Amino acid sequence: MDDRPIDKRFSLAFYFGTLKSVLVGPGEFFESLPEPQGLQKPFAFLLVSSLLHAALGWLLIPSFWWAMVMLTNALISPMIAAAAGYGLIRGVTRQQVPFNEVFALYGYAIGTTHLISWIPMANWIAEPWWWVLIGTGMVRRFRISGFQALFIIGFSIVLIRVFFSILTPLTLEIKSWFVS
């Protein structure tokens, strides 16, 4: 374990350095994350990427409400995915991986893909790319097998799809209470 103190401050230099590291060498980046990894930097990285995602999307569809939907989705989806991944990693591998380590992996991976996912039809590239980054991180960071990572990712996708298929009718029903 590395005994160096963890710098919990976030800066744009950290953001762009992290972005470059994930893009150039994701395996090395995830393998070299310091322990313990707090939530502050991964969340700040995800937040900046989400804000950029929403702002760039707003350039295509200049609607405040659409930008807010994009921002909300860009922040909440990774949290839901990280929660599913956390439970599955612990259940499948029996490792006592802390949630903040899993969230860091998901936050950095998905935050990186947000930079192209605002482009129409780019989700066909961005979403598989985020799962590849997450799988790479699982194998390199948590030392699980490629098969276990593939199983966890596949089951995560199913859980997330089921969650949103349940959530969509509920949100439409709640919306109908406020809009006539």
Describe the protein's architecture and organization.
The protein is built from seven helices and no strands. With 180 residues, it is mainly alpha-helical. Helix 4 (64-93) runs antiparallel to helix 7 and helix 5 (99-117) packs antiparallel against helix 6. The chain is globular and about 50 Å long.
What is the strand and helix layout of this fold?
Elements: H1 12-24, H2 26-31, H3 40-60, H4 64-93, H5 99-117, H6 123-142, H7 146-178
Task: Give a brief outline of the structure.
The protein is mostly helical. It contains seven helices and no strands. The longest helix is centred in the last third of the chain and has 33 residues.
H/E series: HHHHHHH
Structural class: mainly alpha
Mean pLDDT: 89
Strand content: under 5%
Gross morphology is globular
* Uncertain spans: 1-5
Jot down its keywords.
mainly alpha; disordered N terminus; 180 residues
